[in-house]
């Protein structure tokens, strides 16, 4: 359990909190927050999980050195195949970069020497909630998505189709666990229909796909 959860349970005293998740957290995440507190006598800008936006605003995927391979759909299938030797994207080997918010790809480790993906290992998502419990290190995001499909409708092809739509279009900005959404499923579908969310304008869902996606999100709550 995290400190914020212990506060919510009343097991420890409520205090102002900045979360610096990671396994371990980046050294600059710690030093920059301390420097900000000393210089400005207050907290830096935080996200909804109380993480500093300067470190955790963007995903590892957004700034990954292998991102262009992802865009070109060039994926390593095994750790020892030709794609791995060429430095292709590690998504199919379980990389959690698309759903992990951290600055590893920019700051790197060991005085800026490298970071796991650059060294040939997928991101394991260590700075996200429930890190240890959300699937295995080498489980792909699409496989993990199917674990969240409703168990009583595991053979419902439309539910599975909704899971696939979510995995292909949503996990790059949102959690692969659809239960993390605070917006009601029917409101999400309505927002996508309206076209009011500029960042979602690239998503061109048919009415049938929106219905399938809405059904999947409803059943996943």
Describe the secondary-structure layout.
Elements: H1 3-9, H2 27-40, H3 53-56, H4 67-71, H5 82-85, H6 104-107, H7 141-147, H8 157-169, H9 185-194, H10 207-220
Helix pairs in contact: 7-8, 8-10, 9-10
Task: Describe the 3D structure.
This protein is mostly helical and 221 residues long. It folds into 3 domains: 1-57, no CATH class; 58-127, Cytochrome-c3 hydrogenase, C-terminal domain (Cytochrome-c3 Hydrogenase, Chain A, domain 2), CATH 4.10.480.10; 141-220. It has helices at residues 3-9, 27-40, 53-56, 67-71, 82-85, 104-107, 141-147, 157-169, 185-194, 207-220. Helix 7 packs antiparallel against helix 8, helix 8 packs across helix 10 (207-220) and helix 9 (185-194) packs antiparallel against helix 10 (207-220). The protein is globular. The two termini are 22 Å apart.
Work out the number of β strands: 0
Rg over CA atoms, rounded to whole Å, is 19 Å
End-to-end Cα distance: 22 Å
Please give the largest β-sheet: none
In terms of structural class, how would the helical and strand content be classed? Answer: mainly alpha
Q: What low-confidence regions span 5 or more consecutive residues with pLDDT below 50?
A: 146-155
Number of helices: 10
Approximate strand percentage: under 5%
Number of domains: 3
Average of per-residue pLDDT values: 84
What percentage of residues falls in helices of 4 or more residues?
Answer: 25-40%
Report the principal-axis shape.
Answer: globular
Query: Order of helices and strands, N to C?
Result: HHHHHHHHHH
Features:
221 residues, 10 helices, 3 domains, mainly alpha, Cytochrome-c3 Hydrogenase, Chain A, domain 2
